Amino acid sequence: MAKRKQPSKRQLAVIEDLFAGELDTQAVLEKHKLRRQLYDKWQRDEMFIEQFDARIAAAHRQSAALIARYAPLAVAKLVQLTESDKAETARKACLDIISFPSQSAEKPPTPVGPKSTSENNSNRLSEQTASRILSALARENNEKS
After folding, report:
1. If you count DSSP H runs as helices and E runs as strands, how many of each does the chain have, helices first?
2. Distance CA 115, CA 69 (A)
3. At CA 24, angle to CA 19 and CA 25, rounded to 5?
4. Distance (Å, rounded) from C-alpha 12 to C-alpha 27?
5. Range of the domain at 129
6. pLDDT, tens digit, for every residue of 66-92?
7. Which pTM value belongs to this model?
8. H/E element, 130
9. Distance separating alpha carbons of residues 45 and 43, to the nearest angstrom
10. 61 lies in some domain
């Protein structure tokens, strides 16, 4: 018997329902009259795993595109919030802007996974530096008023 090269139609239907987000895993299994034992066996099937992982990767790409689409709007809103009458709101907006990681169009996407501590710290300002910047912004804002 020849080894199949693609997941079955039933497996694809189950994967589709799992990613549709309307049902939890148990409800999907019940909908497709699928025993948990068979589903667990599918979890070890190379073709099923490849298709499942491909769907996860596609969902991550879609999320990244959506975030990239709205990032300029979010940054513009943060900049507006720095002018808020509420000092705490303005302060938090400034902190968010300061800690916003610089993104470059030429920068390759970072792999998913934990970063080293030194890598995390290289994109952040120290509390003392952030405090100095906030003080300077506050003085500048007071001088304008």
Report:
1. 7, 0
2. 25
3. 85
4. 16
5. 82-99+124-145
6. 988 998 888 889 889 988 899 998 888
7. 0.56
8. helix 127-144
9. 6
10. yes
